[in-house]
Amino acid sequence: MSIKQHQHAHWSSRLAFILAATGSAVGLGNIWKFPYMVGESGGAAFVLIYLLCIGLIGLPILVAEWLIGRRGQNNPANAMADLAKGAGRPRAWMLVGISGILGAFLILSFYSVIGGWSLYYTLNSVTGAFSGQDADGIGALFNAMLASPGLLLAGHSVFMLLVIGIVARGVTKGLEGAVRTLMPALGVLMVVLVGYGMTTGHFGQALTYLFNPDWSALSGETVLAALGHAFFTLSLGMGIMMAYGSYLGREVDLLKTARTVVIMDTVIALGAGLAIFPIVFANDLDLASGPGLIFVTLPLAFGKMGGGIIVGLMFFLLLTFAALTSAISLLEPVVEFVEERTPLSRVASTLVAGVAAWGLGIAALLSFNLWSEPVLFGLNVFDLLDKLTSKFMLPLTGLGVILFTAWQLDRHEVARELGLSGTAAGIWHLVTRFIAPIGVAVVFVSSL
Ligand code: PHE
Ligand code: NA
């Protein structure tokens, strides 16, 4: 039951929706997180498991979230509650929506901290801070940033302010045009950087590392990390795609649209890997550098290549932009929930949600300097927020979404809505009823 009735806006076209969904999916997860996870998890075996998770689990859940959102025409918690009620199922299903909203809130807090790093590196590119630096110099620059709470706070605050400003105006405006021009630009820049990787003489080694698996390196922990990242990178298990689906018209082909978004997301992530690992090998950098990986590798290339200042500036600008479009999508479901459940206006709801996430982000950024001691399970606040969301909340919420769609909604209606019949409908049911949920459950239980 929503306290307020308000007219739900709609995307102007299928293209607009694809752009917004891609804007949410493509972000720090692809360019910052994916490469360092590969580096920490030993390469190709992780990559292949990740791709499997994307295809067999991520894609069906993406479709399921859109379907629920479009049918519910409401914030994720209310949409789940209404649909459950309509199908004569327990209202408790709305917990899935609520846990998704909570996940989005938690992720936003630390995501914005990394958005701040990206802003700071944009500035560094302009001032020529990378020119003539060796690996030690670039590493020192990164460590100095981490050691400075003031610098991190400034970046985090500016980034969050931008997010709040954009969301307060409503996502359907403005976002489309921006994503339409910036996504192709990001693609072109990726090609330039992969091209640079080919000149380092270590491109072959990077290819082997990324695609030739050493299965002995694989552990249950790695598989769970790959699964969690499949959710993170597609913005799943957080109510985000549900929220976006709630602005979606009837005519859109969900399966085809999902395929487009998934392919774009995967191409950008693999492109980032192909750009970064040749530099890692050429400069003998530590594969397991963790969250600092792109910040200690790419600037080395920018400092050496001709026109590096321009390329570096463009890269960090686009990274900041990709992070912004994702962060906007993280704040959106939280705001939608507050707005539809309280008497607060859109602007007030945005402020409340944004400032709360900003406050939690401060605890996350202090993890890199003043407050690096573990607070729980041997993890500091930053790692705790990251692991708790990616490894637990997202997979569990996603499991709820897929179980609900596959087992609680009328399967014939769902097949019709997706335009599936015969064998295709059979495969859809096999994947959503058994393969995806069992996959999530097995990975999850075996890692405990
Ligand atoms: N999918 C985004 C990325 O890959 C991150 C994100 C996660 C955005 C969850 C929204 C929700 O960077
Ligand atoms: Na992504």
TrEMBL record:
Task: State any single GO MF term.
Answer: symporter activity
State where the protein is found: Membrane
Q: Which GO terms describe its cellular component?
A: membrane
Source species, domain of life:
Bacteria
What's the protein name? Transporter
Question: Into which family does the record put it?
Answer: Belongs to the sodium:neurotransmitter symporter (SNF) (TC 2.A.22) family.
Q: Name one Pfam family in it.
A: SNF
Membrane topology, record value = Multi-pass membrane protein
Question: For this UniProt entry, what is the primary localization, expressed as one broad class?
Answer: membrane
Write out the entry's keywords from A to Z: Membrane, Symport, Transmembrane, Transmembrane helix, Transport
Q: Where are the transmembrane segments?
A: 12-32, 44-68, 92-114, 151-171, 183-203, 223-249, 261-281, 287-303, 310-331, 351-371, 392-409, 425-445
InterPro entries from the entry? Answer: Na/ntran_symport, SNS_sf, YocR/YhdH-like
